Backbone:
């Protein structure tokens, strides 16, 4: 179970103000490309699941994920998530180009074995592309509070959103700390009401 605090920023100005405030703890920035897949008959989405391929910094890294049963309330997200590295990343690109190969060309993948179980007939199982979006992620380590922070600028075809995320086993404490920090630095925010994937599927920014 992945547990995260998710705080939505209203615009690019708030994002820049927060980036400046977090700059002493900045570690690195990743360019991410996220591509999503479902069964041809909606077999995954009907059970609140989705397959994702995420590419980092072009083709430097590729990660396969299965996410399921996402819940988001009061700025705290909980989602069942499994991840696997795809090596080499060029294989991930080939699979993204021909999604039907996802179920056949990753023979040692526990995720793909689980995905096959979503289909009543494995012989006719097929994954199809849903599309995706790009994300610029700045990663920060706030050592004093023991928090890893991710400041996101997410670029959809229909607009751009901004969000601060923090994966933590203590979401209530982290949320309290982060809200106090944002208020102290005059950064406006609200609790995120939908995941990035949900925004993508809605086809519009959610406010």
Residues:
């Amino acid at each position: 179970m992945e547990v995260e605090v998710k705080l939505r920023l209203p615009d690019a100005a708030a994002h820049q103000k927060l980036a400046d405030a977090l700059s002493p703890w900045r570690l690195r920035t990743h360019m991410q490309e996220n591509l999503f897949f479902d069964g041809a008959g909606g077999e995954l989405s009907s059970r609140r699941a989705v397959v994702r391929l995420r590419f980092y910094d072009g083709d430097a890294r590729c990660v396969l994920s299965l996410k399921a049963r996402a819940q988001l309330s009061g700025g705290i997200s909980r989602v069942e998530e499994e991840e696997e590295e795809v090596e080499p990343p060029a294989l991930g690109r080939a699979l993204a180009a021909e999604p039907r190969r996802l179920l056949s060309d990753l023979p040692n993948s526990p995720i793909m074995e689980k995905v096959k179980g979503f289909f009543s007939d494995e012989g006719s199982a097929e994954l199809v592309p849903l599309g995706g979006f790009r994300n610029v992620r700045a990663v920060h380590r706030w050592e004093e509070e023991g928090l890893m922070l991710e400041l996101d600028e997410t670029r959809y075809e229909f607009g751009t959103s901004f969000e601060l995320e923090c994966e933590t086993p203590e979401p209530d404490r982290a949320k309290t700390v982060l809200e106090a920090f944002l208020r102290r630095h005059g950064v406006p925010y609200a609790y995120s009401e939908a995941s990035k994937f949900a925004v993508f599927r809605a086809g519009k920014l959610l406010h």
